Amino acid sequence: MSKPKVSKEEQELLDAVEAGEFESVLTESRREELEAVADNTSKKDKRINIRISNRDLTAIQSRALREGVPYQTFVSSIIHKYISGSLKDLTADQPKKRTHR
Fold first, then answer.
1. Coil/strand/helix, residue 95
2. 64 closest CA partner among 53, 51, 75, 54
3. Are residues 58 and 67 in contact, defined by beta-carbon separation less than 8 angstroms?
4. Which region holds residue 97: left if phi is over 0, alpha if psi is between -120 and 50, else beta?
5. Averaged pLDDT for residues 14-24
């Protein structure tokens, strides 16, 4: 695997961190708070039931198989990415096509 390329500034920061030139200001209480938030974020404690077409389900299962994850995990990931803003609807900002009659 090739080493990732970094800018001069990034390399200077890496060198400084590795040389111990930075000191963490993270308190134990803040660490516990962040750990609790992380645990709650990844918890899957709710179940939903939806009805979708057989064609869509087959496509989802096929895509999940290529990704190497169970299809339920894949669907959950899609929902999470969309809600968090990292998955965008590419057609949302496109103008609607008018049909001529």
1. coil
2. 75
3. no
4. beta
5. 89
Q: State phi, psi for 54 to the nearest 5 degrees.
A: -60, -40
Backbone angles phi, psi at 16, to 5 degrees: -65, -40
What DSSP assignment string belongs to 8-76?
Answer: HHHHHHHHHHHTT-------HHHHHHHHHHHHHHH-----------HHHHHHHHHHHHHHTS-HHHHHH
Check whether 99 has a pLDDT greater than 70: no
Specify the length of the chain in residues.
101
Is this prediction's pTM over 0.70?
no
More confident residue, 16 or 97: 16
- Residues 25-54 have pLDDT tens digits of 889 998 888 888 887 777 777 889 999 999
Count Cβ neighbours within 10 Å for each residue of 72-99 and write b for 16 or more, e otherwise.
Answer: eebbeeeeeeeeeeeeeeeeeeeeeeee
